[in-house]
Amino acid sequence: MGEIGAYYTDAPGGGINFNTVKISGEGGNVLLKPLLTGICGTDRGIVNGSLSFAYNPPGYSFLVLGHESLCEVVESDSPQFRKGDRVVPLVRRPGECPNCLIGRPDNCSDGNKHEAGITGLHGFMRGEFRDFDHNLVRVQDNSLGDIGVLTEPTKNVVKAFEVFERVSSRFVYNNSLSTLEGKKALIIGTGSEAFLYSLLSRDYGFETYILNRHDIEQNKKDMCAAFDVNFVNSAADRDLINGSPIDLLIDTSGDPGTIFHYVRKMNYNGIAILFGTNERAPVATIGGDDIDYVVERNITLAGSVDAARIHYLKALDCLSGWKRKYGKALDGMITGYYTPGDMDLFMHKPAGEIKSVIRW
Ligand code: NAP
């Protein structure tokens, strides 16, 4: 492959460039052209140097960014894909631990997996690239259109709910009607992952709240109304979550002070899923009374990272279901289209951003 335009950084130090790069030796029986790539908190964290786990591929002094992508097949030597198919490439590539070997690199047990655009593998924010068919998931539902680019962030949410299901089976978690209706979920953050969490939370039947420490823009308020999700401004009322305690807490902020403030508002048998990461978040003190609170209520604190192929497939089903249910409102998840070369996007979040995408 010759020289192609790409967004790249020098991980983990950070920075951002858009220029032609030369990448050699990448295998793959399918040639792909990105149609859309999404920007997420992880991309910005890598660019501002706050994610020390990011690193360049061996032999390179740079890392091509991008792990959220909707691509078109340009050429295929695989019987599984044809020119023109729309596909989503998997982010995580397995190492050799037992979890990786059974197709669950999301649960890698020795850290020797790689992630495109994050850890030791070039990402998808470039004019074209090759990949192997077993790393690709086909988008079957043409009606999804651009929303297919949300498959990757949605697969994280699907996996986190798998964690929730496993953990909640350790006690009777449902209500007396054996449903989750009336149970309360609080999602910290109002970014794209938080909105995707809120959608799945509503599907499960939770009374759902999303929270930030400032007011949100009108487009996000409209989105909450369309999805039947309540917004909480914690600066206006730090204790407001409508009385009853929280059954499911999902954090997308990575801010320990905020997380533990709301852990202390959780119900017996509550489950907290930690998802957001921010190494620059202020240090918070946790006291013995916090530990007592968690222990005495059987509260589970569970980390959840990435997802496996099965979750990409379920994510596509979720997106199709949400498209049928919410129609045009779901399209509002994409709040801005940008062109390759726009660098400011990696350094500053546009106002009202849910998901910004680059059209290639
Ligand atoms: P994002 O758009 O930056 O979302 C983070 C949200 O948290 C923003 O809405 C931010 O608010 C809010 N926030 C920050 N501090 C807060 C606080 N103290 N209280 C309330 N809200 C607060 O990023 P994203 O793309 O949705 O991703 C969410 C997080 O998950 C990021 O940290 C990302 O690195 C991480 N992530 C994890 C995985 C995984 O597998 N575990 C995968 C992808 C991403 P404002 O920006 O409006 O101030």
Structure description:
This protein is an alpha/beta fold. It folds into two domains: 3-138 and 333-359, Medium-chain alcohol dehydrogenases, catalytic domain (Quinone Oxidoreductase, Chain A, domain 1, Alpha-Beta Complex); 155-303, NAD(P)-binding Rossmann-like Domain (Rossmann fold, 3-Layer(aba) Sandwich), CATH 3.40.50. The chain has ten helices and 19 strands. The chain has helices at 41-47, 98-101, 151-168, 192-204, 218-227, 256-263, 288-296, 309-326, 328-331, 344-347; strands spanning 4-10, 14-21, 30-38, 63-64, 68-76, 86-89, 92-93, 114-116, 120-121, 129-131, 136-138, 184-188, 207-212, 230-233, 246-251, 266-274, 300-303, 334-338, 355-359. Strands 3, 5, 6, 10, 11, 18 and 19 form a seven-stranded mixed sheet that branches. A six-stranded parallel sheet has the order 14-13-12-15-16-17, with helices on both faces. It has a three-stranded antiparallel sheet with strand order 2-1-4. It is globular, with a radius of gyration of 20 Å. The two termini are 18 Å apart. 42% of the residues are buried. NADP nicotinamide-adenine-dinucleotide phosphate (NAP) binds next to helix 1, helix 4 and strand 13. NADP nicotinamide-adenine-dinucleotide phosphate is lined by residues 40-42, 45, 156, 188-194, 211-213, 252-255, 258, 275-278, 304-306, 349.
Mean pLDDT metric: 95
Q: How does the major sheet shape up? A: 7 strands, mixed
Structural class, from helix and strand content?
alpha/beta
Which residues sit in consecutive blocks of at least 5 with pLDDT less than 50? Answer: none
CATH architecture of the largest domain: Alpha-Beta Complex
CATH fold name of the largest domain, please? Quinone Oxidoreductase, Chain A, domain 1
- Rg of Cα set: 20 Å
Question: Total helix count?
Answer: 10
Bound molecules: NADP nicotinamide-adenine-dinucleotide phosphate
CATH superfamily of the largest domain: Medium-chain alcohol dehydrogenases, catalytic domain
Count of domains: 2
Number of strands: 19
Q: Helicity, in percent?
A: 25-40%
What is the H/E string? EEEHEEEEHEEEEHEHEHEEHEHEHHEHE
Shape: globular
Estimate what percentage of residues fall within beta strands.
25-35%
Span from first to last CA?
A: 18 Å
CATH secondary-structure class of the largest domain: Alpha Beta
